[in-house]
Amino acid sequence: MKYNYYWRKSGLKKPYGDNFLSLVEEYKPKNVLEIGVFCGVTSRNICELLKTNFGSDFRYYGLDLFGSTKTSSVDEIEPKFLENQKFSNPLKTIYYNFIKKENLNSKISVQNFLKKFSQNIELLEGDTRVTLEKVPLSEIDFVFLDGGHSYDTVLSDLQKLYDNMKNNSKIVCDDFTGITKIESVEKAIKDFANNNKIKLEEKFKRFALLNVEK
Ligand SMILES: C[S@@+](CC[C@H](N)C(=O)[O-])C[C@H]1O[C@@H](n2cnc3c(N)ncnc32)[C@H](O)[C@@H]1O
Fold first, then answer.
1. Fewer beta carbons within 10 angstroms: which end of the chain, N or C?
2. CATH, residue 51
3. Which residue range forms the structural domain that includes residue 203?
4. What stretch of H or E contains 16?
């Protein structure tokens, strides 16, 4: 399946959307968690693929601040887009900011965008230090970790995931290497993998893949 941008805004520019979907295709998870939903474009692509693979028998959980306050803002990096919702395509700026007056990173906007999957999804608003507790992590097969990018947040999210997810489930982390690499993210992932003796694989000169082994 090709990654579709739906005339919104995505964190995964070409070719990384397709690269990411090929990982979902390869591991064929049934229950997926995305940490950092942003405008819901990757969420929608994941749900479309899960529907193709499993019909209505899948779950998708999406966590995001959706504009609410972070527990800790130390060293946190946010997409510039969240400051004023300015698109590189001026037509989109006019359409979303002045005609629709829609904040694409709001829970209501993403909920609406994913409404055909309303029976299969759950969107949770708030900091992952709180919301991750509400996800049945032992049932999740595949996580896309792309929320808070500070060292402490990445490490805290990874530890919670690893402690609760089942054997052989997968965690794909964004911004580990290549042109979008974020030093704090890379360091947190490497430290986490070393401390827990987990195999770490680099994918598509961008992502890190961790296999949960217990
Ligand atoms: C890079 S964007 C995610 C991009 C998205 N995965 C995609 O493919 O389009 C990061 C998102 O993480 C959210 N975020 C940042 N810190 C967070 C935190 N501590 N808890 C939950 N969400 C957070 C931001 O609101 C932002 O929407």
1. C
2. 3.40.50.150
3. 16-79+105-211
4. helix 16-27
Mean pLDDT confidence for 137-148: 98
107 Cα: distance to centroid of ligand 1 (angstroms) = 12
Residue whose CA lies nearest to ligand 1 atom number 20: 127
Mean pLDDT on 172-187? 97
Question: pTM of this prediction?
Answer: 0.96
Mean pLDDT of 91-108: 94
- Structure tokens that stand for 79 in this block: 């997409």
Helix (H, G, I), strand (E, B) or coil at 128: helix
The interaxial angle of helices 151-164 and 183-196, nearest 10 deg, is 40
If one compares 121 and 73, the residue with the highest pLDDT of the two is 121
For the Cβ of 11 lying below 6 angstroms from any atom of ligand 1, the answer is yes
Count structural domains, the chain: 1
d(CA 3, CA 102): 23
Q: What is the pLDDT of residues 81-94, one digit of tens each?
A: 888 888 999 999 99
Considering the chain, what is the average pLDDT of its residues? Answer: 95
In a domain, residue 3? The reply is no
